[in-house]
Amino acid sequence: MAANPSQETNLPSQTALMWDVIVIGGGVVGCAITRRFALAGAKTLLLERGGDILSGASKANSAILHTGFDAPPDSLELACMQAGYREYLDINERLNLPVLKTGALVVAWNDAQLAQLDGILTKAHNNGVNDARMIGQTALLSREPNLSRDALAAVEVPGEYVIDPWSAPLAYLTQAVGAGAQYRFDTEVLSGEFDGSFWQLSAAGQTFAGRFVINCTGTNGDNIEQICRKPAFEIRPRKGQFLVYDKTAAGLINSIILPVPTPTTKGVVLTRTAFGNLLLGPTAEEQEDRWNAPVERDILQGLIEKGVSMLPDLPQHEITATYAGLRPATQFKDYQISAEAGKNWVGVNGIRSTGLTAALGIAAHVEHLLMETFPGITRFGPAKTPTWPRMPMLAEAEPRAYQQGDGSEIICHCERVTRREIEQAMSGVVPAESLGGLRRRTRVMMGRCNGFYCSARVAELSSKGKISPPLAEDRDQ
Amino acid sequence: MSGFDCDVAIIGAGPSGIAAATALSKAGVRDIVVYEREAEIGGIPRHIHHPTFGLLVFKRPISGTKFIKALLKRCSNVRFETNTTVTALRAGGVLDIAAPDGNRRIRARHIILATGARETPRHPRLISGLRPIGVTTTGALQQFLYGARLRPFRRAVIVGTELVSFTALCTLRKAGIKPVAMIEENRRITAYRPLVLFARLMGVPIYTNTRITGISGREVLNQITVESPGSGTRHVDCDGLIFSGNFVGENTIARTSHLQHNQSTQIPQTDQNWLSSDPAISVIGNALHPADMGDQCYQEGLIAGTFVADLLVEKVSPTGAIMIVNHDATIKMTTPNIVRQQGDGDVRLNISLHVTRPYTGPISVTCGEQILYLKTRRCMPARRITLKNIKLTASQFETMSDLRISLGKPH
Ligand SMILES: Cc1cc2nc3c(=O)[nH]c(=O)nc-3n(C[C@H](O)[C@H](O)[C@H](O)COP(=O)(O)OP(=O)(O)OC[C@H]3O[C@@H](n4cnc5c(N)ncnc54)[C@H](O)[C@@H]3O)c2cc1C
Ligand SMILES: Cc1cc2nc3c(=O)[nH]c(=O)nc-3n(C[C@H](O)[C@H](O)[C@H](O)COP(=O)(O)OP(=O)(O)OC[C@H]3O[C@@H](n4cnc5c(N)ncnc54)[C@H](O)[C@@H]3O)c2cc1C
Fold it and tell me: In this complex, do A451 and B136 lie within 8 Å of one another by their Cβ atoms?
């Protein structure tokens, strides 16, 4: 990519290149924050290291929209989750984002867990989740007839839902771009200088100048904090591995099946996905590596055993995918969100295991924090009247493009993705520029055959877009 | 109930679907339509350029593409609709269809499922590692090279040593991709042993008794890790990794339909005349027995199609008592997996099966205390073994509900 010569000069006086807010990191949190500031009228730029948004924790989670019933009381996490939850349900229809109103059941599988249910219920009520209630074994098994008979009782939390974890952040960024925000992929921030009024961030051989910087770099959060200050926390990546079962398995459960949590983890969950699959996971494994989250056969086999103990019919269903995500955890339980007065910097870190839910709430909190910490200098342009981009609907329960007849053939047979959907994903407001980006925007190659039927067609189609690295080269070269 | 849109709707235009259409047409059935979701007719052979077809049907080896051309010459008065996906199968002969020119629901007097088989890819095999670009299957590789004329990588490792794994080797060679190694979990290769020589002549090592334990590369594959009891852990540099063989039926629409399935294999219940639990639906080809040779699927499709033609003119009756064919876990699947009595007579049939590991010894078919078949056989995985001339009497149908096939002497 040839750099614009004017961008190579470091002069902040070039107002055309001056941003009000630069967000580092395009996870779900960075996308929500970019949206928030763009709509508030700030000239906002998002810089992302990967070839697409969601290159970190946000690409691999359980996709549950949590009520906060089991969050630490009076925590910032709880407040952001509940605000995020409300805002998501307020805007999702306008953005054409799905919500699967499954509810959840926290199931006790032995007497020790049974004894904990009362405490869980009380905590839920204290957290304002007032519709949570206890259900006994008979009611539990009649609602979930495929659960093992070892299930003793449950706390029902009707408000726990499932969403599309990829379309939601994409919608946030798309809406932000509609309000004038910009983004750069393959742009890793390496260093920065603050001159008292402006930040100069160096990334991908360029300098980006902005008045405020918001660090949303997930598992890289403590390193990037160093640009501004000594971080008050340390990132301790915690891996979670998952198995995805084929669509035939989704009917095995109605609600999200949650375990009774231990102090360190929410434990292994069974949930339907928005895409009509059944998800089993995650694990919770501390590791050093901040970037790579490989799956491990032994651990997956352990997960399967765990899954079968809850759902004995599971082995009748095909496994379609395995994946792992890294939670940006710290030594602390709560989020690590703070502003550095005098340095125009906000760190949004340690968004451990609830960030998909909380993102919109975190964004509102950060805007507030910025206004409070830097009164006087936080004046932006006039607030924007939001446009409401409608995202392609990928949820199994909603009408998909192939069902509405979009005039093109199905390319990915397992996930029933049409040619037009693929073409549109490469030409939208935030087009896919990597295979991962294309998969998350369309579900292409995500099904049971792992691309046996469609990957060559996808490679062919993607050669017409800007997909990098390319899936293949011309054979005759 | 009337108002059929066609006499027979066939789903899938691979060798078995083409065969059924050919037989039906020859038998005088007029209104036959074949739905094919790909842009081209032919199923798997359409992107196989090696002479691994034709021996049974044409008595000479020909390539998959030529095989299909030759088969289509024998097939007339059949309507093929490509780019057309059957998205749901319903009772009463109803199909939901998605096509670029619009979606519709049609009703056929009889439906034949000929949806074929695919390979087991990376994820269901629970392979450890990252998820870079470059991890694929033989079928996908062949489509890259021959369909799209694209080269997905330069140096590839093949996982598996079935016949299809060696066709992957040829495919790589032809395309100028370096085959780095072949990897086999078992002590010996799955295909015929002389193929070891073939790989050796090409300079490609076969690591037997070896498991793949890691996949590296953040965006693009750059290395795999393998482990064997003899040589410990090794790293192999490659940018392509091909999971070959270990076939599974592509039974998606059957699985979500009203059809009954075999409890252990999840393959649709299908009787000796290829009728499913719904007698207005047949299941044929490699959807049923992943994976026999294309020629075998073609021959089966001809017989199954002829049976459907007879059924439509009520020469045969689809109703009768049913027995389930149960089997040991070392048997991958049997065809048929149910037996249906015709009227109130006896039934004579052949049963084919595949094993999951090499076995030489007695195979028995029993019905309660009675031994219906007992012979010593030599069985290799990924090859069809046929147990011939098994007889079930009317009184067995009255008193018993299942058969059992065991590797070993009957108890
Ligand atoms: C196993 C698991 C299950 C989960 N389940 C749920 C759930 O069910 N519900 C829920 O609400 N939450 C869940 N979460 C939590 C949620 O996924 C995270 O809280 C959220 O994704 C964190 O988002 P983030 O934007 O802070 O971080 P990330 O998504 O990690 O984003 C950080 C981004 O910053 C980029 N970056 C890093 N360094 C730089 C740099 N120097 N320059 C530019 N860019 C950089 C990275 O590439 C990355 O894209 C789960 C998480 C995991 C791992
Ligand atoms: C990678 C690979 C390599 C092989 N190599 C050889 C070889 O070299 N020699 C050999 O003899 N055999 C080979 N085989 C075995 C092969 O399965 C058979 O040769 C033969 O193709 C089976 O015929 P079929 O008609 O049952 O299925 P297929 O040939 O698989 O045809 C099934 C057709 O059904 C279509 N279909 C599926 N679902 C739908 C739907 N819902 N709607 C519309 N259409 C649908 C598919 O698109 C496909 O075209 C190979 C198999 C694989 C997977």
Answer: yes
- Residue whose C-alpha is closest to residue A39's, from A161, A173, A166: A173
Q: CB atoms < 10 A from the CB of A329, how many? A: 22
- For the domain spanning A401-466, the CATH number is 1.10.10
Query: Residue B148 is nearest to which of A321, A460, A477, comparing CB atoms?
Result: A460
> Each residue of A99-128: pLDDT tens digit?
999 999 999 999 999 999 999 999 999 999
Compute the distance between CA of residue A257 and CA of residue A264 in angstroms, rounded to an integer: 18
Question: pLDDT of B29-46, one tens digit each?
Answer: 999 999 999 999 999 999
Please tell me what DSSP assigns to residue B52. Answer: -
Rounded to a whole number of angstroms, the distance from the CA of B229 to the nearest CA of chain A is 18
Asked whether the beta carbons of A287 and A238 are under 8 A apart, the reply is: yes
Q: What is the ipTM of this complex?
A: 0.96
**Closest by Cα among B189, B130, B166 to B242:** B166
Q: Write out chain B residues lying below 8 Å of A318, CB-based.
A: 124, 248, 266
Instruction: Give the right CATH number for A99-162+236-327 from 3.50.50.60, 3.30.9.10, 3.10.20.310, 3.40.1010.10.
Output: 3.30.9.10
For residue B152, which residues of chain A lie inside 8 Å, CB to CB? 455, 459, 471-472
Q: Is B149 helix (H, G, I), strand (E, B) or coil?
A: coil
Listed residue (A266, A244, A71, A272) closest to A161, CA to CA: A272
Cβ burial B283-310 (10 Å sphere, 16+ → b, else e): bbbbbbbbbbbbbbbbbbbbebbbbbbe
Spans of all domains in chain A: 17-59+166-235+332-373, 99-162+236-327, 401-466
A294 to chain B, any CB pair closer than 8 A? The answer is yes
Pairing of strands B32-35, B6-11: parallel
Q: How far is the CA of A302 from the centre of ligand 2 (A)?
A: 34
B-chain residue closest to A293, CA distance: B130
> Does A301 lie at the interface with B, CB-CB under 8 angstroms?
yes
Tell me whether the CATH fold assigned to A17-59+166-235+332-373 matches the one assigned to A401-466. no
0.90 surpassed by pTM = yes
Q: Which residues from B are below 8 Å from A422, CB to CB?
A: none
How many A from CA of A416 to the centre of ligand 2? Answer: 19
Token output for A208: 């980006």
Q: Which residues lie below 8 Å from residue A203, measured CB to CB, with a gap of 6+?
A: A47, A184, A187, A188, A189, A190
How far is residue A279 CA from its own chain's centroid?
Answer: 16
- B315 in contact with A at a CB cutoff of 8 Å? no
Phi, psi of A106 (to 5 degrees): -90, 105
**Residue (of A37, A58, A109) closest to A369 by Cα position:** A37
pLDDT score for A271: 98
- State the architecture of A17-59+166-235+332-373 in CATH terms: 3-Layer(bba) Sandwich (3.50)
What is the Cα–Cα distance from B189 to B278, expressed in whole angstroms?
40
Contact between chains at B99 and A409 (C-beta distance less than 8 A):
yes
- Name the strand (E) or helix (H) holding A118: helix A111-126
